Amino acid sequence: MALIDRMTALNARLTSIPVRLGVPQHKTLLIRHVELDDDLLATSHTDALIEPKPYITQVPAKLVGLEIGSSGAFQSSSGITISQEDYQVTGIPRSYSLQFLQENVDVYVIDPPMDALGAIAYDSKGNPASGDFCKLLTVMDKELLTWTLILRKVRDHYVDQTVTVNY
Known about the structure:
- The protein has one domain.
- By secondary structure, it is of the alpha+beta class.
- It has helices at about 1-20, 100, and strands spanning about 30-35, 45-50, 55-60, 65-70, 80, 85-95, 105-110, 130-140, 145-155, 155-160, 160-165.
- A hairpin with a 6-residue loop joins strand 1 and strand 2 (about 45-50).
């Protein structure tokens, strides 16, 4: 297992090179986890930034129309179909566990606003002030050193104190 850890660390250093050169597809990804307190009465949020910045693009054409989540070969229209508006997030090191990427995740935020010190800017409700709010569709694990996520932008989100609903 030490070899995989060293390869993951090397891959993280290599992916930081294009970020320093300013490749615009390497964007900030924030993962917001939600947890219940011991009494199950209140929730708390924990935000985590993925480092190094992952490579975020639109889903490639070969994945558009792919149905995910269907449970049987003879069931039609039972799964979710990947669309052109979905995001593909690649280059997340395997040092992040699959449970960290999937369990208790409230929302994924692509390009949350940052202040001059590198801290996330929040609105009055404690949410990131802007950015693309997304939900996870699937995790692909075909690469040995990195995870690939397919995210779908959330249509309903909070803007300051009002709720915006798009149909």
